[in-house]
Amino acid sequence: MSGAYQIRPTFTKEHQAEPASLAESLLHTFAGDDSDAHVQRVGQHIVLTPIPKARHLWSPWLHVEIEVAESGSLVRAKFSPHPNLWTSFAFGYFTLGTVVFFAGFFAVAQMFTGERPWAWWVTAVAAVGLIAMWITAKVGQGLAHEQMHQLRTQLEEALETAADTPSSQA
Q1: Which of 25, 39, 60, 107 is geometrically suited to a Cys-Cys bond with 162, CB 3.0 to 4.6 A?
Q2: CA 123, CA 144: separation in Å to the nearest integer?
Q3: Which long-range contacts (CB under 8 A, 24 or more apart) does 126-133 make?
Q4: What is the pTM of this model?
């Protein structure tokens, strides 16, 4: 489920296995030498990335959270860019959003006091920066689309395989 305005595409799946055994099964599946994904695990949190030789600046990271559900597990998967890139974008959005907010109010105050409202220019430039960052994020998602599709397909196949393994039966 990926909307046009969604920055971090997300999807959810239900699984009949218990969270701990499902996480172990997924780790075992992706830890093999023939896997096209690199895997890291902390508890029930798994991160899948393309293998190092296939990684680019725009390559996605698939964060998989395995939670307890009534019938076994709820698998929530969310795509994001590399954490350093994501932090940079989040800081940029926050900074430019703050500039738009305060410069806009300052421009309104300038208008009310009869001054020339030069702060509208600052507001406009920061707003253009926000739009440029959003477009850049969308271009990055477009470049990463194939790898996102591969990671999602591999995860879905691993979840189907996990249903057949004895270690995931509870």
Answers
A1: 25
A2: 31
A3: 126/96, 126/99, 126/100, 127/96, 127/100, 129/92, 129/96, 130/93, 130/96, 130/97, 130/100, 133/89, 133/92, 133/93, 133/96
A4: 0.73
Taking a C-beta distance cutoff of 8 angstroms, is the pair 105, 120 a contact? no
Neighbours of 164 (CB within 10 A): 9
Report the distance separating Cα 105 and Cα 91, nearest Å.
Answer: 21
Q: Find the helix or strand (DSSP H, E) in which 119 lies.
A: helix 119-164
Q: What are the tokens at 136?
A: 């850049």
Contact 99, 117 (CB under 8 A): no
Measuring CA to CA, which residue among 53, 54, 26 is closest to residue 40? 26
- Residue at 161: amino acid letter: T
Decide if pLDDT at 1 tops 50. no
Cα(80)–Cα(7) distance, rounded to whole angstroms? 8
∠2-67-74 over CA atoms, to 5°?
50
